[in-house]
Amino acid sequence: MNDKAPRQLQRMHGNEPIVGTTLTLVNFWQWLASNLLGTVNRSALAEFLVASDLDLSGEIRREWKSCDLTTKSGIRIEVKSAAYLQDWTKDGLSKIVFRIAKTRRWDPDIGGPMSTEASRNADVYVFCILNNQDGATNPLDTSKWEFYVLPTATLDAELGNQKTLELGGLKRLNPIQAKFGEIQKAVAAIEQAKSNIAVSGADKS
Predict the structure, then answer these.
(1) CA dist 184 → 1, 48, 77 (Å)
(2) Structural contact between residues 116 and 133, judged by C-beta atoms closer than 8 angstroms
(3) pLDDT tens readout for residues 51-94
(4) pTM of the predicted structure, to 2 decimals
(5) 35 Cβ partners below 8 Å, 6+ apart?
(6) Going by C-beta distance under 8 Å and a sequence separation of 6 or more, which residues neighbour residue 85?
(7) pLDDT of 200
């Protein structure tokens, strides 16, 4: 028996009472997550959109996993987000920059341990951009999001230990560009291409 296995989580609905008050869980959610332009909540929203596209949103999000999402076929997904408009300024646009640094991760699914070497702990990266640039934005409008899907092997081969990636550099790596509703197809295409390479290599051996 693994006594370090992750605790079973219960999916909440929002009407659960905060005992000793007249408040419910939804009041806490409104306080916590209404700022969807903030880096933390925007990143979580991007991850939720990708999870929804991959038919994984019925699961409960856990922090500190070695990767953000795992598809039903076992493909590990890392989700990164960026936006031109930020909550801390009304004027000007931010540069699109993603953090892609290799990291040492602790895996809560097995109770650890921390990996000994830093790496990119996913098979595929999905880079998400909230693309509003006109001063008014609605992060809940999926048509305002762009997604770029790229195999981690490309990042490792082309960028090595590079820690950040700007939009221009990302596009030069020829990712699959997708809209919401097309991410699952893009991930499947990368999975199929990887499988074809493996078969081709086996045929030559």
Answers:
(1) 35, 13, 11
(2) no
(3) 999 999 988 888 778 899 999 999 999 999 999 998 887 778 89
(4) 0.88
(5) 41, 87
(6) 37, 93, 94, 130, 132, 133, 135, 137
(7) 56
